[in-house]
Specification:
The complex is a heterodimer.
Chain A: E1 3-7, H1 8-22, E2 26-30, H2 46-50, E3 55-57, H3 62-75, E4 78-85, H4 93-106, E5 116-120, H5 136-140, E6 146-148, H6 153-165, E7 170-174, E8 182-186, E9 198-201, E10 206-210, H7 214-227, E11 232-236, E12 239-241, H8 245-255, E13 258-261, H9 270-282, E14 291-293, H10 304-310, H11 314-324
Parallel strand pairs in A: 2-3, 2-4, 4-5, 5-7, 6-7, 10-11, 10-13, 13-14
Antiparallel strand pairs in A: 1-8, 6-12, 9-11
Helix pairs in contact in A: 1-6, 3-4, 7-11, 8-9
Chain B: H1 58-83, H2 98-105, E1 114-116, H3 121-127, H4 131-138, E2 162-165, H5 172-190, E3 204-209, H6 216-228, E4 232-238, E5 241-242, E6 245-246, H7 247-250, H8 258-262, E7 267-272, H9 276-293, E8 297-302, H10 320-327, H11 331-342, H12 348-371
Parallel strand pairs in B: 1-2, 1-3, 3-4, 4-8, 7-8
Antiparallel strand pairs in B: 5-6
Helix pairs in contact in B: 1-2, 1-3, 1-11, 1-12, 2-3, 2-9, 4-12, 5-6
Classes of the chains: A alpha/beta, B alpha/beta.
Bound molecules: thiamine diphosphate (TPP) and magnesium ion.
């Protein structure tokens, strides 16, 4: 299929617009999505095409409009709710944690809650402690949710289309820092399925598992390691839940070593979960204990230098892989 | 919009010929003044002339009476089963508030969506859920409306457009706005009903307790409803208490709750919630207007719960006299008196037969629940996802469970 280079945000926009053309039950609601063209310009131009009955500016009432989406989805619509940042989803925690994932169970299978909640996740640029949340560890703990976390424009579009079509609620985690990143995206229609990891680099010495933006740090680390003759499998997991643990295990059977790179804090994190599952399923294949690279276990700092250090950056990943290979 | 001074009190009809089943009717009909904090308007909606409900055929009112008696007898059985430890968890009875669910639900169409809080058995029965499915749910049985996964606080009934039973105080209020939003979206965007056929004008009812007035969720929801003219009616079941907190101890403007609605540009009215005819008289035209004009409303419905907040409430916070005062203006008795003596639509024997029938149905629901099977062990892992995929959980695969008994 022919491809072209587009930005991550354009990929998201295309996914939403295509699905809205395909299904009139789909609408987009969030702060500044319509007349402002999106706080981060993801929904630019969508108001013109779809009108204000389907591209809906909401007041700053996350709990209110998240709850409204629950009712609309139960009734039969397919809401897409944009959170300006997932940091702000915390004021909607009751709707997101109680109603969205549990409605199907509590109603004995009568009503599900097919809403896509999407927005920026993780450190932006010096936004400080309140605005830099990585929510995947928090939300992945709750059964009933699916969580997607693309690392590039291609997957952003394909995963978002899958999310909108899914009959279950999906939390879709984007990164402000990637919205302008360009990537190869097919001209035509495609979707990316949930629960299938993608190999970004191939190697034999170590398996590096990651999610979302840090996948790109892992690829940078892999390039650096290659200069020293170390080759690694970088697995882009693409969804946290479902988690393609089979792909991780297959790679570990080849490499015998694993480093999990995750932008959450380390305690009870996504990395903790991956490593637990690795131990449960591939313990005998490990030649070194599993290692994890997380953000530092502190609130997100403001200062540029501190923030850069805080992230699970290339340097930390290179160090971890070397440690796993006893090359330190 | 609302009345601040009590409307003239109507004298009670002549003494009942037969024995009274639920109460002792006092000679005074009106919200008990002595027990009224903040001068709650009472007995409003008593019109001097003919009332809209007078135009209804007697069988309609007889059905209301039956529905109210059914709820009360059902709740009496719940209390019993709870004391016998056959019902677990939290269980909140609707006794005293029956007119509210019956009168408001009678004022809307069957396919108008409704949603409520955890004191939800009355709404479920009034909406048409069978006593069996409701009781079996509380017994945690496979035949319950949620296959035994929801319990007393989470009654869902898709065929009857009841979108739950919600346990977190106030959480249902934005969801209620969403139901109405979707109904309006059918009308304005889809041009068709998602249930099939043409789109039509609907109105959603979202019930909440007076305690939920203090939840932020409601205020966000009312702002959205006012802003976008969403056809949802917030029905406050103002039984004057949230657990042991009397309304004026937890809520500002308790003497005029409609002020809260006005702040969001929403019409607010106060209605006597103990007289089902008054509810219909005032609520039906309001619901019709909201449907027609596709806009929200807020109703402060004055009611009272006779029992404790839940099954474990010694009720130290209120005087026995207060409860007794309200019991003297019992909603079932009021309608019964009307049907017996004003309409002469029923005889004492007819009423006895209705009570007998409802008691039998309540008893039957208990027997049914008792005899029903527990949920299959694999139901633990069903209804978590609709679209089940591999690797959603590290411990076990999710499954598709038994079909819901209501579907
Ligand atoms: C968010 C939340 N806080 C506290 C509770 C515990 N709780 C359950 S019912 C209740 C009182 C609610 O009173 P009201 O809204 O007046 O309803 P009523 O019980 O009178 O029907 C409380 C505090 C809860 N379920 N949810
Ligand atoms: Mg109350």
């Amino acid at each position: 299929m022919a491809t072209r280079q587009i930005q991550f945000r354009e990929a998201l926009r295309e996914a939403m617009a295509e699905e809205m053309r395909r299904d009139d039950r789909v609408f987009l609601m969030g702060e500044e999505v319509a007349y402002y063209n999106g706080a981060y310009k993801v929904s630019q131009g969508m108001l013109e095409e779809f009108g204000d009955k389907r591209i809906i500016d909401a007041p700053i009432s996350e709990n209110g409009f998240a709850g409204l989406a629950v009712g609309a989805a139960m009734y039969g619509l397919r809401p897409i709710i944009e959170f300006m940042s997932w940091s702000f989803s915390l004021v909607a925690a009751d709707q997101l944690l109680n109603n969205v994932p549990k409605m199907l169970y509590m109603s004995g299978g009568q009503w599900g809650c097919p809403v896509v909640f999407r927005g920026n996740n993780g450190a932006g640029g010096q936004l400080g402690s309140t605005h830099s949340w990585c929510v995947e560890a928090l939300y992945a703990n709750v059964p009933g949710l699916k969580i997607a976390i693309p690392s590039n424009a291609h997957d952003a579009k394909g995963l978002l289309k899958s999310a909108i079509r899914d009959d279950d609620p999906v939390f879709f985690l984007e990164s402000e820092r990637m919205l302008s990143d360009k990537g190869e995206v097919p001209e035509g229609e495609y979707t990316v399925p949930f629960g299938r990891a993608e190999l970004r680099t191939e190697g034999t010495d170590c398996t590096v598992v990651s999610f979302g933006r840090p996948v790109n740090f892992c690829v940078e680390a892999a390039r650096e390691l290659e200069k020293e003759g170390v080759t690694v499998d970088v697995l882009d997991m693409r969804t946290v839940r479902p988690l393609d643990i089979g792909a991780v295990v297959r790679s570990i059977k080849k490499t015998g070593r694993v480093v999990v790179v995750d932008q959450c804090w380390p305690f009870a994190s996504v990395a903790s979960e991956v490593i637990t599952q690795v131990c449960e399923r591939a313990f005998d294949s490990l030649d070194h204990q599993p290692l994890r690279v997380n953000t530092d276990d502190v609130p997100t700092p403001y200062a540029k230098t501190l923030e850069a250090e805080y992230l699970p950056h290339k340097g930390k990943i290179v160090q971890a892989v070397k440690a796993a290979l006893h090359r330190l | 919009m609302h009345q601040t001074s009590p409307a003239p009190v109507q004298p009670a009809p002549g003494p009942a010929a037969g024995e009274n089943r639920y109460h002792i009717t006092s000679s005074r009909v009106g919200m008990p003044g002595a027990a009224e904090p903040n001068g709650h308007a009472a007995g409003n909606g008593h019109h001097a002339g003919p009332r809209p409900s007078d135009a209804l055929a007697s069988p309609v009112l007889v059905k209301w009476l039956r529905d109210m008696i059914m709820i009360r007898e059902f709740e009496n059985r719940c209390a019993q089963a709870y004391q016998q430890a056959k019902i677990g968890g939290f269980c909140h009875l609707y006794i005293g508030q029956e007119a509210l669910a019956v009168g408001t639900i009678a004022s809307v169409e069957h396919d108008d969506p409704i949603i409520t809080a955890y004191r939800d058995h009355g709404h479920a029965l009034a909406r048409g859920m069978t006593p069996r499915a409701c009781m079996a749910e509380m017994f945690g049985k496979a035949t319950g409306c949620a296959k035994g996964k929801g319990g007393s606080m989470h009654m869902f009934d898709r065929p009857n457009w009841l979108f739950g039973g919600h346990g977190i105080v106030g959480a249902q209020t934005p969801v209620g706005a969403g139901l109405a939003f979707a109904a309006k979206y059918e009308l304005e965007v889809l041009g068709r009903s998602l249930a099939g056929g043409a789109a039509k004008k609907k109105v959603a009812l979202c019930y909440l307790g007076d305690g939920a007035l203090n939840q932020g969720a409601l205020h966000e929801a009312m702002n959205l409803a006012g802003l976008w003219s969403i056809p949802v009616i917030y029905v406050v079941e103002n039984n004057r208490y949230s657990m042991g907190t009397a309304i004026e101890r937890g809520t500002t403007m308790a003497h005029d709750l409609t002020a809260k609605a006005r702040a969001y540009g929403i019409e607010g009215v106060q209605i006597d919630g103990m007289d089902v005819r008054t509810i219909y008289d005032r609520f039906k035209p309001l619901a019709d207007r909201c449907r027609e004009q596709q806009r929200p409303a807020f109703v402060d419905l004055l009611t009272y719960r006779y029992q404790g907040h839940s099954m474990s409430d010694p009720q130290k916070y209120r005087a026995k006299d207060e409860v007794e005062l309200f019991r003297q203006r019992d909603s079932i008795a009021l309608l019964e008196q009307h049907l017996l003596h004003e309409r002469r639509a029923l005889s004492e024997a007819d009423v006895d037969a209705i009570v007998h029938e409802c008691k039998a149905l309540a008893q039957d629901s208990v027997e049914f629940a008792e005899q029903s099977p527990a949920p299959d062990a694999q139901e633990l892992y069903s209804d978590v996802y609709v679209n089940i995929q591999p690797d959603l959980s590290p411990t076990r695969a999710y499954v598709h469970g038994a079909k819901n008994p209501l579907l």
